[in-house]
Design brief:
By secondary structure, the chain is α/β, with parallel strands linked by helices. The protein has a single domain, classed as 3-Layer(aba) Sandwich (Rossmann fold), CATH 3.40.50.150. It has 12 helices and 7 strands. Helix 9 crosses helix 11. The longest helix is centred in the first third of the chain and has 23 residues. It starts with 7 loop residues before the first helix and ends with a strand. Bound molecules: S-adenosylmethionine. S-adenosylmethionine binds next to helix 1.
């Protein structure tokens, strides 16, 4: 990743903003802060209805990706609400990008500590953006700069008031495909050895077939090309069977796989806009043993 950080983080926010502003009702995920948090160029385009209509024609291949992005965000936040009732007190966003959870859920500030972990370049850009927009950083969020390819997550977390004995949900959305297998495994091991047993992790993954059949589809071809052009090539994919084998070696047990068909049944059937999640990516839930 370049020093200035991730451009795909801005794109993900732009996609949530587009969904919030222009998708048909009911929204799968409502993120009214995404339009402010995405980059200025996206903000300009998304505020102009005519440009949006043009983008919809030129970039209709992104629709399945948007479907996946809004589904994964909704899934994590719905699970978080359930885990809060079970005594979870910490929420760690790994590769948080332009996530706006802390701004959308101010009522949780007294009972949930939030840790946004991201590449230094991306995180600096987000915090500068917030300053320029005059949006104060909530008191219950700590920002921690970590490069998963270089830094130890355990060390960085321990420097910040993270409570190792509290039950914690980790969300790792839209990050694993960009990392090497070595840093994925190191990060998983770091999490498992740092947190209370029973803590959970939710992340999304590309199926191995995304790199073969998926790449042969219009969406796949353009997606891989566009992330490469942004300097963030997608390089790693796993099938659920790979993770069933790998996760226990890192201190986790796999508890749930949410496939694109599952998401379709949950939130996408009968939509007027025909939105559906891409069929080459899925969500995994795992628990610290
Ligand atoms: C596609 S964005 C997803 C952002 C956010 N989770 C979302 O769903 O909108 C990828 C994120 O992974 C982060 N990332 C990628 N490689 C990283 C690395 N080596 N260390 C830390 N963060 C990384 C980027 O900075 C960026 O925030």
């Amino acid at each position: 990743m370049k020093k200035r950080g991730s451009r795909t983080a801005d794109t993900s926010a732009a996609q949530r903003a587009y969904h919030t502003l222009y998708a048909s009702e009911p929204k799968v995920f409502d993120d009214p802060f995404a339009i402010q948090l995405t980059g200025p160029a996206w903000r300009f385009c998304l505020k102009n209805k005519w440009i949006v209509r043009f983008i919809e024609r030129q970039y209709d291949w992104t629709m399945p990706i948007i479907g996946h992005h809004v589904a994964r965000s909704r899934y994590v936040e719905e699970q978080l609400d359930k885990l809060l009732e079970k005594g979870f007190t910490q929420y760690v966003l790994l590769g948080a990008g332009m996530d706006s959870f802390v701004f959308r859920r101010p009522e949780l500030s007294g009972k949930l500590a939030v840790f946004e972990i991201d590449h230094p370049g991306t995180q600096t850009r987000k915090r500068d953006r917030l300053k320029k927009l005059g949006i104060p950083e909530p008191r219950n969020v700590k920002y921690i700069a970590v490069d998963f390819e270089q830094d130890s997550l355990t060390e960085k977390l321990s420097e910040t008031g993270f409570q190792a004995d509290e039950k914690t949900l980790f969300a790792w959305l839209g990050v694993v495909p960009y990392l090497t297998e070595a840093s994925i495994l190191t990060t998983l091991k770091d999490i498992a050895k740092t947190v209370a047993r029973g803590s959970e992790l939710i992340f999304d993954v590309l199926y191995r077939s995304a790199f073969t059949q998926g790449k042969g589809t219009m969406t796949g071809r353009k997606l891989f090309r566009s992330t490469e052009r942004k300097g963030e090539p997608m390089i790693t994919g796993y099938d659920p069977d790979d993770l069933k084998r790998l996760l226990p070696e890192t201190g986790f047990e796999l508890t749930c796989v949410v496939s694109p068909d599952d998401f379709t049944n949950m939130w996408f059937t009968g939509r007027k806009d025909g939105l559906k999640p891409w069929k080459y990516t899925y969500v995994v839930r795992a628990r610290v043993k």
